[in-house]
Q: What sequence folds into this?
């Protein structure tokens, strides 16, 4: 879902400058893990707003369902049972999904022109019509978020409801969150709100409560309030100090001198993709038809 | 709820016990996070499982399923021995100073008056000592050993921290930490709210668990206060409305009660319920019983109910016994019923002991289900393999399925847990042939009435004379029904203070139950709802959320029964002289002429504090009862009894009295007696519950719900998993004496092994949501496992504590 082109500040694999006359406020979604009850209303709202329905899966011996992000589940709750202090069990429930990095590794890694864009409000969006399905965005993502659809071989992830935000609404997940664990606003306001929450958490004995806004990716437009900000990894493997993979940085370094060939390379990649993957729609469609019956 | 959802934000301390609000009431739970975020509130969760509520709690402690009275009784003992009570409040507003009859006794777990053969108490001795003046005798010095205070103190002195820990499995230090936190709210400017749900009601001693908690709140002065109260979280959006409107077998609308089969005399019926004050100067609001009753009969029977026929008293059925869910299926199981109308109810899934329910339904000639969904009950005769292993050829019951609308497909009101009648508007047209429940039931009624008209019958009058003046008789509108329930004047109503004035003209809607009369001049379908649709219009449809006091009472949002009052017993938020205990949370006050403020005062609005009218106006005492007199079926003071299926040999409080192992007055049918499992064969404590992702047995019919939680599972702790060689994700079979289910195992740290009476107790958690209808993966009905025993007061089954065994498949 695209915002107006005036709001686009960065595009993947593109050398022409982006429009720059309009400035919008940087936005952020703040996920307060200490208020989250793991009800999954955000997962439902995400599928409803985006008109997606994931498969009805199975139980894997945990509360997490669907078990992982998919092309249709752009956000999932990850439940972990930890004892930071001995005999003091905590059930840390983290809403996982795209972090909307200020320095997005996916966009850097993407070889398809305009398949990944960044808006001036900070949202990183995939334009699937330009996606060639190479999966480089996954390599580029320090948070392991994008998922390639088996149906159309395109990458999908949370859009931070750029379509809603573009018309002044909050993301669907924020709108539906019953406990106020999800809040949305300007990044500045969200940082301030987080600071108040951290004071409260410290008063409840969480000495290491803090904001997760990792500098390694230039900060993020989805941030967490964590009870144990010194150990983000206990929240189902939230990276402690995320960076864009060295491979991606290297690849960008090599690519830059031959940027003039960029377009040709993309065309080639696209051609190769067509040759190797083929027109896969027919059998998938047939499958769906059967499901439909 | 004595208070309401929004009011939770005013609490200093929140105790969630006997419920799991984050899981089952995630939307209302926002007020808990609000209290934490903006009122620095602390949250305690006490539960056999570390729940989603516990995930955001400041303090969690485990306890054994079914041992809540031991825990709460221990809290009472702590408050009394550490002198952490709100003295002024307790003295003024409870019955502590009342003297108890000399022949009331409690010996080794059994109260006086026990009839073992009937499993019932004769409750004459459970009463106060009465003076010659007709009032209860009191001792304000509290020196008399027979005063309620000392009786209570003696009763709970047995509940020491060591005893509590030995019964509940809660480590002693953790129990004491909870006591300390709770005791802190005895200060007049500190309040605790208690949020509970079916985790308390669904026990053979469920009502008494709730009572014990209410006693704690009274001792702390937390009833009637903003941010306090006893707050029952209702499990369906309109289950509060169901009880309000009298859909329980022994009730009439507004908690009026049906006459018993011996109550054939109208005057005696009314007098018995019009309680005279037990202390001087008290309101004893039930003295108005006749006004409520007569107005109800006028709403139902119009001109056919008049003074000369005692307002059609003979039309009312006279109750032989309670016909609650367990009793109905017992009767059906005994072949005493031919047909059953099952409206918005899925008993095959929702009632205990699925096998018995299935056998019972098989004995019917016909079953009618009125439901938006294809329920398991409607398909009870189909073979669904292991999930419903029946032989359809052997079942002769004819099943009629009448598709009804969902709430969003009709206009109407829902009553929430906080007693708010909130009007809602149709959001979508019903699918297919679905009709509103009112249309289905009215259609049946109109045809039945026609048959009675033509063919007569044993007693056609109550059917033929029923008021049925709806615009479309076969499809009454929600608006017309709501107006009828709220009530109107049938003749001009004079102002009792000034006879020249007319309060309401004939035909006008009434302003409230204060205008009801006992002479047939008013009609009202439910006195508690009177005024919800007045001449000002439909007050339930109001959506003004302005909140001048900041306490969240929003008096112009919807309509709250009774009388639009938001916090019940709010007179108790002020001291006897009329000053608020906590000026920062002032609900009401006395301005020299009348009571008023941020809420509708809960007493006679012009009764000056000096007159001493006490806050608990529905009690003839005027004060709250710590000693329940004869109001409970199983004792005036709550006592811990073991669940009917217990891992223990005896009640640790009464180890030598087998009669007092389980609640002596809980109801067990003869054919269910041999259906209790033994700890030797079924060593693990099981408890059933809901998950956030699902609503009962409904949302497995929706794809989104099914995606979120697709497949049946059970939860066990790591110790039991190790013993049984079960890993997360393995398939297991859980078996009770009544049947088995198979599910995926979730092995979790959140269920702990508890140390009880020197032995280890393991808990098996069983979510209830699966069945053999819908789009989620088919599963077993959890109530295949549960026992058929009813609480002595409500006959609610014991779903929260029973015995099972578990094996890896």
A:
């Amino acid at each position: 879902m695209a915002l107006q082109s005036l709001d686009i500040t960065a595009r993947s694999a593109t050398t022409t400058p982006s429009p720059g006359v309009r400035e919008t406020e940087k936005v952020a979604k703040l996920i307060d893990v200490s208020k989250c009850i793991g009800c999954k209303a955000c997962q439902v709202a995400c599928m409803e707003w985006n008109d997606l329905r994931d498969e009805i899966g199975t139980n894997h011996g945990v509360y997490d369902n669907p078990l992982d992000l998919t092309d249709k589940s752009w956000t999932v709750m990850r439940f972990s049972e930890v004892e930071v202090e001995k005999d003091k069990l905590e059930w840390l429930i983290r809403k996982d999904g795209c972090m909307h990095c200020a320095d997005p590794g996916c966009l850097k890694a993407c070889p398809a022109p305009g398949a990944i864009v960044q808006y001036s409000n900070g949202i990183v969006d995939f334009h699937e019509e330009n996606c060639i399905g190479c999966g480089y965005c996954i390599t580029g993502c320090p948070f392991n978020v994008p998922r390639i659809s088996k149906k159309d071989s395109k990458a999908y992830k949370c859009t931070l409801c750029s379509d809603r935000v573009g018309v002044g609404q909050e993301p669907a997940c924020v709108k539906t969150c019953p406990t106020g664990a999800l809040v949305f606003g300007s990044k500045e306001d969200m940082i301030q709100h987080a600071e108040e929450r951290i004071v409260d958490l410290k008063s409840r004995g969480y000495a290491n409560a803090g904001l997760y806004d990792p500098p390694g990716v230039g900060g993020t437009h989805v941030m967490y309030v964590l009870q144990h900000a010194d150990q983000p990894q206990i929240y189902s493997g939230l990276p402690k100090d995320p960076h864009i993979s060295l491979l991606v940085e290297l690849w960008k370094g090599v690519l830059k001198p031959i940027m003039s060939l960029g377009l040709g390379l993309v065309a080639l990649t696209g051609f190769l993709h067509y040759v190797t993957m083929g027109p896969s729609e027919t059998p998938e469609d047939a499958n769906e038809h059967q499901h439909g019956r | 709820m004595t208070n309401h959802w929004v009011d939770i934000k005013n609490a200093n301390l929140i105790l969630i016990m006997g419920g799991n609000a984050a899981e089952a009431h995630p939307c209302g739970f926002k007020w808990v996070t609000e209290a934490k975020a903006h009122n620095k509130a602390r949250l305690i969760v006490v539960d056999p499982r570390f729940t989603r509520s516990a995930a955001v709690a400041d303090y969690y402690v485990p306890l054994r399923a079914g041992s809540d009275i031991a825990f709460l009784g221990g809290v009472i003992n702590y408050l009394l021995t550490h002198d952490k009570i709100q003295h002024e409040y307790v003295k003024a507003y409870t019955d502590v100073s009342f003297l108890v009859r000399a022949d009331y006794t409690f010996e080794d777990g059994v109260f006086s008056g026990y009839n073992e053969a009937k499993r019932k108490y004769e409750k004459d001795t459970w009463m106060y000592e009465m003076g010659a003046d007709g009032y209860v005798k009191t001792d304000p010095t509290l020196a008399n050993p027979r005063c309620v205070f000392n009786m209570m103190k003696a009763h709970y002195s047995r509940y020491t921290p060591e005893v509590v820990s030995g019964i509940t499995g809660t480590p002693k230090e953790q129990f004491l930490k909870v006591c300390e936190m709770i005791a802190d709210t005895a200060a007049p400017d500190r309040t605790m709210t208690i949020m509970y749900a079916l985790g308390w009601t669904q026990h053979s001693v469920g009502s008494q668990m709730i009572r014990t908690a209410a006693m704690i709140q009274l001792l702390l002065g937390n009833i009637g206060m903003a941010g306090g109260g006893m707050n029952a979280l209702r499990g369906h959006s309109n289950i509060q409305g169901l009880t309000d409107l009298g859909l329980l077998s022994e009730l009439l609308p507004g908690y009026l009660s049906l006459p018993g089969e011996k109550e054939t005399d109208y005057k005696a019926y009314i007098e018995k319920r019009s309680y005279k004050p037990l202390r001087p100067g008290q309101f004893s609001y039930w003295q108005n019983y006749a006004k409520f009753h007569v107005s109800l009969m006028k709403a139902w029977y119009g001109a056919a109910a008049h003074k000369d026929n005692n307002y059609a008293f003979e039309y009312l059925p006279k109750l032989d016994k309670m016909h609650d869910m367990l009793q109905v299926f017992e009767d059906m199981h005994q072949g005493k019923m031919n047909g059953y109308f099952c409206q918005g109810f899925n008993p095959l899934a929702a009632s205990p002991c699925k096998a018995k329910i299935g056998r019972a339904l098989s004995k019917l000639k016909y079953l009618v289900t009125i439901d938006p969904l294809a329920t398991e009950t409607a398909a009870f005769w189909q073979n669904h393999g292991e999930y419903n292993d029946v032989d359809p050829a052997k079942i002769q019951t004819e099943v009629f399925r009448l598709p009804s609308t969902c709430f969003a497909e009709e206009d109407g009101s829902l009553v929430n847990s906080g007693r708010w009648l909130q009007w809602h508007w149709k959001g979508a047209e019903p699918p297919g042939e679905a009709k509103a429940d009112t249309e289905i039931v009215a259609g049946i009624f109109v045809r039945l009435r026609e048959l009675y008209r033509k063919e007569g019958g044993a007693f056609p009058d109550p059917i033929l004379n029923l008021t049925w003046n709806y615009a479309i008789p076969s499809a009454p509108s929600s608006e017309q029904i709501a107006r009828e329930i709220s009530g109107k004047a049938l003749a001009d109503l004079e102002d009792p203070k000034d006879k020249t004035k007319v309060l309401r003209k004939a035909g006008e809607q009434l302003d409230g139950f204060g205008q009801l009369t006992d002479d047939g001049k008013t009609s009202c379908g439910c006195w508690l709802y009177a005024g919800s649709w007045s001449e000002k219009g439909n007050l339930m449809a109001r959506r003004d959320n302005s909140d001048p006091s900041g306490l969240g009472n929003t008096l112009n949002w919807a309509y709250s029964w009774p009388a639009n009052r938001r916090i019940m017993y709010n007179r108790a938020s002020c001291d006897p002289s009329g000053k608020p205990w906590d000026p920062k949370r002032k609900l009401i006050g006395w301005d020299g002429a009348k009571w008023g403020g941020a809420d509708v005062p809960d007493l006679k609005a012009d009764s000056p504090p000096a007159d001493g009218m006490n806050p608990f106006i529905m009690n003839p005492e005027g004060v709250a009862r710590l000693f329940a007199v004869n109001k409970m079926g199983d004792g005036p003071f709550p006592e811990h009894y073991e669940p009917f299926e217990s891992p223990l040999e005896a009640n640790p409080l009464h180890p030598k009295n087998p009669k007092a192992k389980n609640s002596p007055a809980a109801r067990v049918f003869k054919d269910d007696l041999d259906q209790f499992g033994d700890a030797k064969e079924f060593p693990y404590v099981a408890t059933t519950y809901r998950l956030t992702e699902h609503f009962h047995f409904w949302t497995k019919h929706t794809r989104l719900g099914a995606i979120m939680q697709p497949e049946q599972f059970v939860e066990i702790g790591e110790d039991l998993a190790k013993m049984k060689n079960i890993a997360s994700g393995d398939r297991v079979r859980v078996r009770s004496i009544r049947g088995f289910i198979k599910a995926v195992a979730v092995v979790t740290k959140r269920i702990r092994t508890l140390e009880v009476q020197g032995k280890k107790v393991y808990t098996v958690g069983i979510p209830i949501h699966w069945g053999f209808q819908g789009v989620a993966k088919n599963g077993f009905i959890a109530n295949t496992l549960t026992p058929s025993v009813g609480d002595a007061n409500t006959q609610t089954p014991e779903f929260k504590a029973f015995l099972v065994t578990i094996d890896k498949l």
